[in-house]
Design brief:
278 residues, alpha+beta, Jelly Rolls, Arc Repressor Mutant, subunit A, four-stranded antiparallel β-sheet, 12 helices, 8 strands, 13% strand
Length: 278
């Protein structure tokens, strides 16, 4: 089957049988075996096929005709595939998507996959035997699976470019990131953040930049702008209230910072978003 651009983190589990995945960016088709789990960043369409050269059917059409979102296709070797999406917070999820590789694949035969097997079995059971609360249960299982797969990937030495995710993986830098994320309105200074991590200002600044890619104060500004962008897109708060909630002393100070980062004044940005949605 050919799956369209997911537009969100997509997960898949091969609960039975084997198949191939084809996707732009893969040098060759990826063999998927029973027990394999994968997560896709969501920025590329992909195929799941019985053999490397098979012509796929349109997955959207196949599932549109399927009752209860369970589709049967073909008559060859039986393959049971379960897939879905993982919902993330729009702002924090955006940070994560910026840094994920296109695909994370965990082999069902690897030692790392052992902890995933219970989650896979529970997910299969929920899908095969729908009961009250199935939607909530499967969503929670998918979230847990995503966290476990991400942990396995990072612990196995998976490459992550400098950024928020690598910073959280550094036990000395993580406290500073968590402080800025939890209280973005606080006027954090380099001294405060360095003290919280038990490092000198110079050592902390150098280590933070090496892990995250930018200086601490620049990161705080970037984080505030992500939150501001989300608030402006919803259109529920006036600019002055957004500015106050993010720690700016005035709406004009916030507007200048927002324009410097995004290239547009807050009200113009908000207007363009609303126009695009009409």
């Amino acid at each position: 089957m050919r799956f369209p651009l997911p537009g969100a983190i997509k997960f898949g589990v091969i609960a039975q049988g084997r198949c191939w995945m084809r996707m732009d960016g893969l040098q060759s088709p990826l063999r998927l075996e029973t027990g394999d789990v994968y997560f896709l960043k969501g920025d590329r369409s992909f195929d799941l096929v019985s053999d490397e050269d098979a012509k796929p059917e349109n997955a959207t059409e196949v599932f549109r005709r399927a009752p209860d979102k369970m589709a049967m296709l073909g008559s060859g070797e039986e393959v049971l595939y379960l897939g879905g999406h993982v919902a993330l917070d729009a702002t924090r999820g955006g940070l994560l998507l910026d840094e994920l590789p296109p695909i994370i694949h965990i082999s069902g035969s690897s030692e790392d996959a052992a902890g995933l097997q219970w989650l896979v079995r529970e997910l299969v059971g929920e899908m095969r035997n729908p009961r009250a609360g199935m939607t909530l249960s499967t969503a929670d299982l998918a979230q847990l699976m995503f966290v476990r797969v991400l942990r396995v990937y990072l612990e196995a030495g998976g490459t992550v470019r400098a950024g928020w995710l690598r910073g959280l993986g550094d036990v000395r830098i993580a406290p500073a990131l968590q402080m800025m994320h939890s209280e973005p309105s606080r006027p954090w200074h380099l001294t405060d953040l360095a003290r919280a991590t038990g490092m000198s200002r110079s050592v902390f600044a150098a280590r933070f930049k090496a892990a995250v890619g930018i200086a601490p104060v620049s990161y705080l500004t970037a984080w505030r702008m992500r939150l501001a962008t989300e608030a402006l897109e919803t259109g529920k708060e006036p600019v002055s209230q957004i500015a106050d909630g993010l720690g700016y002393t005035s709406a004009s100070a916030f507007s200048n910072a927002f324009k410097r980062v995004t290239g547009a004044a807050p009200k113009r940005f908000q207007s363009s978003v609303q126009t695009a949605g009409d």
